[in-house]
Structure formats: structure tokens, C-alpha cells
Design goal:
Two copies of one chain form a homodimer.
Chain A (H helix, E strand, L loop, with lengths): L1 E6 L8 E5 L5 E6 L5 E8 L13 H8 L9 H9 L4 E6 L4 E8 L3 H13 L5 H19 L2 H14 L12 H6 L2 H11 L5 E7 L3 H14 L25 E5 L5 E8 L8 H12 L5 H9 L5 E8 L4 E9 L4 H18 L3 H18 L3 H14 L6 H9 L3 H11 L5 E6 L12
Parallel strand pairs in A: 3-7, 8-12
Antiparallel strand pairs in A: 1-2, 2-3, 4-6, 4-7, 5-6, 9-11, 9-12, 10-11
Helix pairs in contact in A: 1-7, 3-8, 9-12, 9-15, 10-11, 12-14
Chain lengths: 436, 436
């Protein structure tokens, strides 16, 4: 059992420590001595992109089932234990990992660790629970289908990446969910929910050694640390993705058209992510961004208009989202394409660079004030990066971005063939020339 | 100018102070010495229920227009000033008040106060901006119309309160927004955006005297404190509302049916609000609640199922929301009605009372860890209550709730005639006997 200090902190706060337990289980903590809450996350290195095509939705289905009961707690006991102390417990499934988390008062840390470890290590996954939860998942899919802004993002990913693991929906679809058997889901649980693929991260007013002891006790009781192993390497790469360019139109009688226009961005470890972040801030990262100003402030064409970036092991996305009345979509698309062309040709202004740096710097500091976001930063980082980048270093990397860096990333990324997804009262042919 | 200590705090933290400036402007602050962020809110005592029927949506329209430009800043300068330092600035309109707020690093407090005060006191509201923003509001209405879970809540309020100020939508509708003139909106601005109706609340690592000085300087520069006045009394009551019972069905080809079933609850100052809060926690306040357990955990009939309460000056709501496949709505409605009847007949269990108290206690403490929620608590409290209730007292009130209190409030509130709103692929007659 080895403990390392990943970051020494300042004035006794923000110390980040890491311990590897026998079995390859990692525990990372960050001390925040002045808060009363503590956030605990258990991160497992399996996401929807690890699924075989015919098991689409299995990872997310499994995440739901883990709250249904363990050898010592039923579903009611799991939720009541944390809710009865005013805490929250929940989970989410992403394309490359799954996270179970809780936020409680610091005095309740032992309980939070015990419940989360129980759920992650000792779930029963009974056939009855699988059947009951299948209904819940089908409801969740229907709920997302009723939200056009969800649908358009999913359709954009599907069009950009095609029928590949990263292009498929995390929730699966009615057909795949109905086809999943208890044994198949259980197999994913046994294959992936292993200590070397798991990171426990805790942020708050905590003592690292005490956290390690609590985690070790909970996992040992489940017999989960018996086999000697080392932590798995982070998911540093993927099979690579085939970038596609196309238009996908979903005909729906919505009041607003919803569109996503974009292309592939940069992967998680690509050094250009800081320059792309600043480019994104200037293009559509807030109310002072070009797209917001042109589309909403000057023309009143939309309520919601923004751009975003996302990163995975081997790819990323850059996209623009706008929701507007169907009659305005041609104007909106023209503005989007014009603004993209303008930054490719001329980059962004010195004022925008200054503002982008201030925005990323301040946003980073403000965003790390609660225990939940610190817990997420260190947990996710341990799972997907080779090393934790201290906040100071992130700030330095932001500061170091030059106009040339931004021009370069704009000319690469924003010159790529575009993909467009639209949902609204349209036919395919309505957008036949939209991204030509 | 008088300053009072509303709460002495503990160990130098959590001190709450209040100063009344000439002109009747109130400034309340809460010290949180260990945080880096500061949250600033400017609360104005006007909401959608103050609108004449033909001006429906004027308060929210006005809120939008305040970000369009002042005598010294245009829309871009307003947003860029705060975003360029990584902060956020935004606003929301409720039925009884409007709030403009920002969250920034503590060193940027002077800028945040200056920008917010500028927006609140010195907006130009030009005819051109009114026309451009009219389009944005129509887009926002269309966006909400596309979200069935938004629509069902609005339809429930409309059915419960009828065509009264509190039953009408905050956004207005296409017709009312198209009919609003610049002069009409400007009149609301001049009539309501006055120092006696305004509260400035600040939470973070701040010095009260310094905050008062910054606020006074900003308001004085706008000439806004020249007329001597005292703060307006809080909105302690209203015209009273006529409670209605009925069924409203919106026929839409959605994947899920969305329903809200409920009735009027208690008003903001009603002492029974603590007992009703605990009843709500047991019925539908979390994953361990009766409705979640029956509808989702045991039967797999829904993804989202919860109950809620809301309070206004002279009324309140208690409601249950469920989203489920249309084929399951009869089962869901039966469970809702059975569970309501069960708590009316038998109250809730001692375990549920213990859990409810823990849930409200822990939730309150965890919920006040960030500057934004503390700023909201003291600002809203100053505007709508006669006095600020310290957190200790809230905790004591929660602790003091008895089983009899809960049984009594259940027998009053949950025995009232019910109102039902449903959106989904239905005809009116499908629910003709649903709430009989």
C-alpha cells in the first residue's frame, strides 16, 4: 500500500493524496478544511463505448440495477440511508466511464463510503429487478425522446460517428433494452466492476488515512481486494473514429427547430484543447460570444444559442446548438457558417483572447468551490489521465495560449467537413445544400 | 442610515447585517470568510402576478430588456464585463419578485455591484431593443412549449387558479407578447423599480460597510436615492385565490404522458409549512418516498415521479408529477390517489418522520454551503418575510413537528378537491372520472 502526495496544497488546504490498495483499487482525496460537506465518488472505467453493438444500453442499465439491492440492503435501504441524513446519492453513465456518488455532511462520511462500496461491489442483480427496471429505462428513453434538445445532440453524434460504439446512444433504444438479458448485464458487471478499473475520490474536510481505512474495510468485507493486482492504465486511446460529414433531419411537429452544426474536435490529451477552449469561448461560450451576440442580441432569432466542445480518449466534438422558430433556421444557419468562416480566416481579436483567458481562469476557480466538483476533478483525472494536472498548471497553460495557437486550431478543426443534425417540421431535402 | 445585526453568526462566520440606505434601499450581507466567490443579488418586489391581464408577460419581458443596454453600457459591455472575469450574470422572474444576480471572485465585487446596479437603475429600454427582444421572448415561449414537463406544470397552475394573476404564465403568450408596447413595459419599470421595493443581498468573504458603500455609490450615481423613503412592507398577503378543481387535458403526440395531480397548499407564512414539508418528503420527496417506491422501484412504471410544494403570499401548491408511457397512466393515477388516501387516513410512520427530519435538516445545511444559496436566502427573506428566520430556528421548527401536526395538515390539504393536468395523446373524456 503506497501513498503519494499528488499536490501539496496551499495553507493546509487543497492537498491531494493518492493511495493504491491491494487489488489495484485507487483512493484519491482532496482536503477542504473549511467546508462541512463531503463528496464521495466511485468511478468505474466502463462506459457505453465498451458495449458490443447488440448490447447497446447495457452499461447504463447496469448502473440503474446497482441501486436495486445488495446482499445486505434492498433498494429502499440504499436510498433511505443517505436521504435520511439529508444527503444525496446518485450515479451517471458516460461514454467512457460510470460514476456513483454521494454528498453528505462530513460526520456521515463512513456511511456514504459504506453504502456506495456496497452498491458497487455487492449488487445482486436479480431477474425480478431486471424486469422491473427495464420498464424504468424504457420510460427514461421515452422522456429523452420527448425533449428535442436531447434528441438533436444524440442525432448529431450518430451522424458524426456513424454506427460505432461512440456514436451510439448511452441509453440504448427500445429494441436493445428489450433484448438485454439478466445474464448479459451481469456479465458486464463481473467483467468490468473490478478494483483495478475503479477509483474512489473524496473531497471535503477529510483525513486521507481515515478515508483509505474506510474504503479498505468496505471493499474487504465484500472480498473485493483479495486478488493482487495493479491499477489499470488509463484509457489513453481508442480504435480511432471515422469522421463523417452529413445531414440528419428528424421530422417532428415541434414549435422550435433545434440544430447542432459541428465536427470532430480534439481528444482529451491533445495539447490544443486549451486553444480550442478559448476559440469556443469566443465563438459561443457565453452571452458576450459572437454567436450569442449575432443570433440573439442583434437579431432576436433565438433564445438559446451556444457552442461547446467535448473530449474523449481518441476524438472530440466541436458543435454549435441553436433552437429557433422553423421560419428562422436559414438565417441562423447562415450566421453560424459565416462566423465559422470568419474565425478560420481571421482568428479572434486580442480582446477576445484576453476575455477568454479571464473567463476560463475565473470559471475554473469559481467552479472548484464546492466539494462535488473537486471530487469529480480528481476522480475523473485519476481514471482517464496519466497524471493529475494541478490547477496552477491548468491556469498556466491557459495563460500561455497564443493568437497563433488559436488561429492554427481554428484552421484545422473549423475547416473540417461539417455535420448537421436538425429536428423540426422538415423534410430531408430542406437541408440538401446546408453544409455544402 | 441604520445598520442592524440580524444574526450574530458563529466563530466569526455567518454574520448577517442589514442597512437601510436613504431612499429606502436595503442592503443585507452574510459573511462567509473561507470562500473565494461572492454572490450578489438585486431583488425587486415585482412579479408576474402584478401584471394587468392584458400585459401578461411584461415583467419577464422587462427583465430581458434590462440586459440590452444602459446609458453607459451596451448589451455586449454588460455581459463581457462579468464574463471576462470568469463570473456569471443572469436574472429570473418569478410570480412575486424579479432577481438579477452575479457570482464572481471576491476581488471583483465592486464590478459586480456596479454592473448590476447600472442594469437595474439605468436601463434605456429603446424601441429597437424591445422589437429585437420580442423575438427572443417568442422563442423562449416556443422552447417551453416543446417541453411537455414544463407545459404540464403551467397547465396545472392555470387549471388550479383559473384566469387570475397567479394562474397565468410568467412568460405570457404569443398574443400578449406581440401586443406589449415599449411604453407599457417602460411604465412597469418606472413604477416598480424603486429603492423601497429593492433589496441588495450579498454573501461571501465581504465586509458589510464596504458593500453598503459600493451599493450607495452606484445607486447615487444613477440619482436613485434622492427621494427619501422607507422600505416597502413585504407582500404579506394577496387578494386570495379561488381554488378550483378540474381536469385539463392537452392532446399531444408525446412518447410519455406527463401529469400533475394536486391542490392548493399553504402560504409562505403559514406555520404548517414545516409539517407539510415533512409530509411532502414522505410522499414524494426523494427515492425513499412512497410514490417513488410504489411507482418506480416496485412497479417500474415511470422514470421521474415526485411531489412538491410551493408557497406564495396568500396561497401555495401541493402537487405530484409523473411522466409515464400513455398505457400506464391509469395505474399511475390509481397509485397516486391510493397513496394520498392512505396518508389522509393513517398519517405517516415514525420512521418516515425521523427520516423526514434528517432529510430537511441535512438538506438545509448542505444547501447553504455555496454563496449563491446564502445570497438567495437572505435576499428573498428580506423581501417577502417580516423577519429573517435564522437557520438554527428553522432547524428547531423542523425538530418540533409532531405526528399530530402532520396528520392535521394531511387531513386538511390532501382532502381538498383535486386538480389534474395531463399532456399526452388523449381526449378530454379519457379522464372524465379521474379525480371524482
Amino acid at each position: 500500500m503506497t501513498t503519494a502526495i499528488l499536490y501539496p496544497g496551499k495553507d493546509g488546504a487543497g492537498v491531494i493524496r493518492r493511495t493504491v490498495l491491494p487489488g489495484g483499487l485507487r483512493v484519491v482525496t482532496e482536503t477542504m478544511p473549511t467546508v462541512r460537506s463531503v463528496a464521495v465518488g466511485m468511478w468505474v472505467g466502463i462506459g457505453s463505448r465498451d458495449e458490443a453493438p447488440e448490447h447497446m444500453g447495457a452499461t447504463h442499465f447496469l448502473e440503474h440495477l446497482l441501486f436495486k439491492g445488495t446482499s445486505t440492503r434492498d433498494a429502499m435501504e440504499i436510498s433511505a440511508s443517505i436521504e435520511g441524513i439529508g444527503g444525496e446519492i446518485n450515479a451517471f453513465t458516460a461514454k467512457e466511464y460510470t460514476c456513483y456518488y454521494a454528498r453528505v455532511l462530513d460526520e456521515d462520511l463512513p456511511l456514504a463510503i459504506d453504502v456506495l462500496a456496497d452498491v458497487v461491489t455487492s449488487s445482486l442483480i436479480t431477474p425480478e429487478d431486471v424486469e422491473s427496471e427495464r420498464g424504468v429505462i424504457l420510460e427514461e428513453i421515452a422522456m429523452h425522446d420527448d425533449d428535442p434538445s436531447d434528441v438533436v445532440h444524440e442525432q448529431f453524434s450518430a451522424e458524426l460517428y456513424g454506427d460505432t460504439p461512440i456514436g451510439r446512444p448511452i441509453l440504448g433504444n427500445d429494441e436493445s433494452i428489450n433484448a438485454l438479458t439478466r445474464d448479459r448485464i451481469h456479465e458486464y458487471y463481473q467483467r468490468y466492476y473490478l478494483p483495478p478499473l475503479t477509483v474512489v475520490s473524496v473531497a471535503g474536510n477529510v483525513d486521507h488515512e481515515r478515508v483509505v481505512e474506510l474504503v479498505a474495510t468496505a471493499y474487504e468485507r465484500a472480498g473485493a481486494l483479495a486478488t493482487a493486482a495493479s491499477p489499470a492504465a488509463p484509457r489513453l486511446d481508442g480504435p480511432g473514429v471515422e469522421r463523417r460529414s452529413g445531414v440528419r433531419v428528424v421530422d417532428r411537429p415541434t414549435e422550435q427547430a433545434n440544430l447542432v452544426l459541428g465536427t470532430t474536435g480534439v481528444s482529451r490529451r491533445d495539447d490544443r484543447r486549451f486553444a480550442l477552449g478559448m476559440l469556443n469561448a469566443a465563438l459561443g461560450g457565453g452571452m458576450s460570444s459572437r454567436l450569442f451576440q449575432e443570433i440573439r442580441e442583434k437579431r432576436g432569432l433565438a433564445y438559446s444559442a451556444y457552442s461547446y466542445t467535448s473530449q474523449y480518449a481518441d476524438t472530440g466534438q466541436f458543435g454549435i446548438y441553436v433552437g429557433c422558430l422553423p421560419s428562422k433556421i436559414d438565417d441562423v444557419l447562415k450566421i453560424c457558417r459565416d462566423e465559422l468562416a470568419r474565425v478560420v480566416a481571421h482568428g479572434i481579436t486580442p480582446e477576445e483572447i484576453t476575455r477568454g483567458k479571464g473567463q476560463m481562469r475565473g470559471g475554473l476557480v469559481l467552479g472548484l468551490e464546492d466539494t462535488g466538483s473537486r471530487m469529480s476533478r480528481i476522480g475523473k483525472s485519476e481514471l482517464v489521465y496519466e497524471r493529475l494536472m494541478p490547477v496552477d498548471e491548468v491556469l498556466a497553460r491557459i495563460e500561455a495560449v497564443t493568437p497563433d495557437d488559436i488561429a492554427e486550431v481554428a484552421q484545422d478543426i473549423l475547416n473540417r467537413p461539417l455535420t448537421l443534425a436538425v429536428i423540426g417540421p422538415y423534410a430531408d431535402k430542406d437541408f440538401s445544400g446546408a453544409i455544402a
